[in-house]
Structures are given as structure tokens and as C-alpha cells.
């Protein structure tokens, strides 16, 4: 799949706006990101970052018990 820079920026801005609305402009909201490495990971990371969130990437290969203790 080929994506232009224009399409990428548009997707990041759109998702960033949705995240921003969801967190209601509170500063430094922590957002956990639990997905495999992929283009969507980067888009989600940059979108949340553009919304002013603090990203907390989690390793999806970890077992549920070790992830449950993260707050």
C-alpha cells in the first residue's frame, strides 16, 4: 500500500483531533499504546502526540498479568 505524505498528515490530524476531543484538552494525558509495530502504530503515536498526550508504548508480547500492573 502506498500512502502519500499528504494522506499521512491528513490521517494524523484527523485522529489527533478525535483524541483531543476525547481527552477534552486536559494537559499531558497519558495514553497507552498496545499494538504491534506497524504503520498504524506510528500514525496513532503521532496523532496522540499532536493532541498533547504523553504516549506510553506497551509491548504486546508481554503477558496480560504484567501489563495489568501498569497504571
How would you concisely characterize the structure shown here?
By secondary structure, the chain is mostly helical. It is built from 3 helices and 2 strands. It starts with a helix and ends with a helix.
Account of the protein in words:
With 71 residues, this protein is mostly helical. Helix content is 51%, strand content 11%. The chain is built from three helices and two strands, in the order αβαβα. It has helices spanning 5-23, 39-50, 64-68, and strands at 30-33, 54-57. A two-stranded parallel sheet has the order 1-2. β1, α2 (39-50) and β2 (54-57) form a beta-alpha-beta unit. α1 (5-23) packs across α2. The mean pLDDT is 89.
Write the layout of secondary structure elements.
Layout: H1 5-23, E1 30-33, H2 39-50, E2 54-57, H3 64-68
Helix pairs in contact: 1-2
